[in-house]
């Protein structure tokens, strides 16, 4: 079947849409990428989302309005994707939505909230929608993250040397796959979140990111600020673990700056790039990985990638697209895969990676224009993922 995956990360940059042809053959999943695109949020909506994200206070009215407007925006993105990427032949939409809050207490996740009412997506496309992809794992005692581990483990399994997948979104997460050992996955800490918060701070909100890493490249890490930031206890928690803007938001940066003082703009950005590089490398070093495959928005920051590569050495840092999936669309393809598995009665997360007691089916189903007609549940859980090139 052809599945559309929809995603918007913690940076709320826009809606990523990816179309995939998926087929299940015993324990092998075949995924053929049909294309992807990023659809910007409508004017003003991104600012409204950012204004409601932690540590901001919000209201039930705002949550209702955002749930509706994000759902409508996702519906329009899915409609465009169905036509442009799937030639009108999509069978299913899998929507992650926009995370508003991830309720973490210590090492436990108590709840998670993604906005983007799926009824609007079903109405816009006529297709059934799988949404709310994290909550079942949380209800089963897991952390609801990193869900990317499912795709990473299926794709990286069977390699001769230990390998890791690294996603550099607002929060960075990693999956480690080693022959003969259970997989492990965890959020390492901030990816782009602190960098983006600093750019908004130094530009008075005129810019959201350090284009091409120019500011970070112009400075040097400030030793006092770096020491304070790296003292955060989260980095020393054992996996599985997850975090978000609730911890690594603008308040986290402001508190550190009050203690260390505020360095020059270039030094501030260089310090924050070094924080991401150090925490990623420190998290992966115990596993002896030989290769790290990176995806996400942070891969477009050459200075961040340079620092991560230097800290990871002798492990090789490579783009995720060498595995057949575009760096910028990995999570959208992930959610397409999870939706496909749910449709076939298969679990959408890995307890070894999320800490759940069991592997639950992910999400909830919203009918499209017609009644739901699900296939017989698959008899075999997938053990491998193969990315096939699209035939012209």
From TrEMBL:
GO terms for molecular function: kinase activity. InterPro entries: Anhydro_N_Ac-Mur_kinase (IPR005338), ATPase_NBD (IPR043129). The keyword Transferase applies. Keywords: ATP-binding, Carbohydrate metabolism, Kinase, Nucleotide-binding, Transferase. ATP binds at residues 9-16. Pathway: Cell wall biogenesis; peptidoglycan recycling; Amino-sugar metabolism; 1,6-anhydro-N-acetylmuramate degradation. Its EC number is 2.7.1.170. It holds the Pfam family AnmK. It is an enzyme of class 2 (transferase). NCBIfam families: PRK09585.2-6 (NF007146). Catalyzes the specific phosphorylation of 1,6-anhydro-N-acetylmuramic acid (anhMurNAc) with the simultaneous cleavage of the 1,6-anhydro ring, generating MurNAc-6-P. Is required for the utilization of anhMurNAc either imported from the medium or derived from its own cell wall murein, and thus plays a role in cell wall recycling. This is Anhydro-N-acetylmuramic acid kinase. The lineage of its organism: Bacteria, Bacillati, Actinomycetota, Actinomycetes, Streptosporangiales. The gene is anmK.
């Amino acid at each position: 079947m052809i599945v559309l995956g929809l995603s918007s990360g913690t940076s709320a940059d826009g809606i990523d849409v990816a179309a995939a042809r998926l087929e299940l053959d015993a324990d092998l999943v075949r995924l053929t990428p049909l294309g992807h695109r990023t659809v910007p949020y409508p004017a003003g909506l991104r600012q409204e989302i950012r204004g409601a994200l932690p540590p901001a206070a919000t209201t039930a009215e705002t949550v209702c309005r955002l749930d509706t407007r994000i759902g409508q925006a996702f519906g329009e993105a899915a409609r465009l994707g169905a036509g442009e990427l799937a030639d009108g032949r999509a069978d299913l939409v899998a929507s992650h939505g926009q995370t508003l809050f991830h309720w973490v207490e210590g090492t436990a996740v108590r709840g998670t909230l993604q906005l983007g009412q799926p009824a609007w997506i079903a109405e816009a496309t006529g297709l059934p929608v799988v949404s709310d992809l994290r909550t079942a794992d949380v209800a089963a005692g897991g952390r609801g993250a990193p869900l990317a581990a499912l795709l990473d483990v299926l794709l990286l399994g069977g390699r001769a040397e230990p390998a890791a997948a690294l996603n550099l979104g607002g929060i960075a997460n990693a999956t480690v796959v080693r022959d003969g050992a259970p997989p492990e996955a965890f959020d390492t800490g901030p990816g782009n979140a602190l960098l983006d918060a600093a750019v908004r701070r130094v530009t008075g909100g005129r810019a959201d990111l350090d284009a091409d890493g120019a500011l970070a490249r112009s400075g040097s890490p400030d030793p006092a600020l770096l020491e304070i930031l790296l003292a955060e206890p989260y980095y020393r928690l054992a996996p599985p673990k997850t975090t978000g803007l609730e911890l690594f938001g603008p308040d986290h940066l402001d508190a550190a700056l009050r203690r260390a003082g505020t360095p020059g703009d270039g030094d501030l950005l260089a310090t924050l790039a070094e924080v991401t590089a150090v925490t990623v490398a420190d998290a992966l070093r115990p596993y002896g990985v030989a290769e790290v495959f990176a995806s996400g928005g942070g891969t477009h920051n050459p200075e961040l990638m340079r620092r991560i590569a230097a800290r990871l050495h002798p492990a090789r840092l490579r783009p995720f697209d060498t595995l057949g999936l575009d760096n910028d669309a990995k999570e959208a393809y992930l959610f397409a895969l999870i939706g496909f598995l749910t449709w076939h009665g298969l679990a959408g997360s890995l307890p070894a990676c999320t800490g759940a007691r069991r592997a639950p089916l992910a999400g909830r189903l919203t009918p499209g224009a017609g009644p739901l007609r699900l296939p017989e549940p698959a008899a075999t859980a997938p053990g491998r993922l193969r990315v096939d090139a699209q035939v012209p």
